[in-house]
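Ticket 4471: requesting a sanity check on a complex prediction with magnesium ion. Repro inputs:
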Amino acid sequence: MTQPVWNDVDDYISGLLVGPDEALENALAASDRAGLPQINVAPNHGKLLNLIARIHGARRILEFGTLAGYSTIWLARALPADGELITLEADPHHAEVAKGNIAAAGLADRVEVKVGKALDTLPTLDGTFDLFFIDADKANNPAYVRWALDHSRPGTVIIVDNVVRGGRVLDADSTDPSVVGTRELATLLANEPRVSATMVQTVGGKGYDGFALVVVDS
Ligand code: SAH
Ligand code: DHB
Ligand code: MG
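Returned structure tokens:
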């Protein structure tokens, strides 16, 4: 069972349980027209993010890595009308495309796109968050999770995308900064007494990958 069947099953799942969704489809089309890479979460993964945020009752969300705002829209839709999502994006072109997509989805009132490298814009943020979605440069994931832990309350949820990357996470000798960052993140989570964490492998239209799910205990 490999990629073709994963694609077909993803289409089957999304066809039944996700689509059609004009705002999300328009966001992906605008992203493609603007030349952005199609590295957004899959539709069923976006819906998973939305469901987790709803189950959790998240009111304040911080996202790392906006791209065209696809995952942003899924997460922001889970917020109450007075909720807030801040999303961090290093590339000004990506941020412009995302702002257009977020506005077209009717979510501009609760989403703020902060342009700049996350490590530069994080110091401008105050307070705690209910949920973090970390999906930017994987090399900095340990730093992002440490920052998140310092801006959490007991019960805060942290989701980290792309922690498996086709199994490359197993390569202890890798010099790929993404793999090094991901392995360091896994060790950090294993040794961090303030959290309960797991990682789940996924297959689908986006290949073989996985995500980490973390709850801050104290
Ligand atoms: N979350 C998006 C996909 C994000 S792709 C979705 O699922 O729809 C990763 C994004 O992170 C890219 O847009 C890239 O420009 C951005 N990025 C890379 N390095 C970054 C950094 N240091 N700070 C903020 N964003 C960064
Ligand atoms: C890449 C980044 C992602 O966040 C993702 O989900 C898939 C691929 C990438 O940089 O290649
Ligand atoms: Mg990702």
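Notes from triage: The chain has one domain: 3-216. Leaving this open until the requester confirms.
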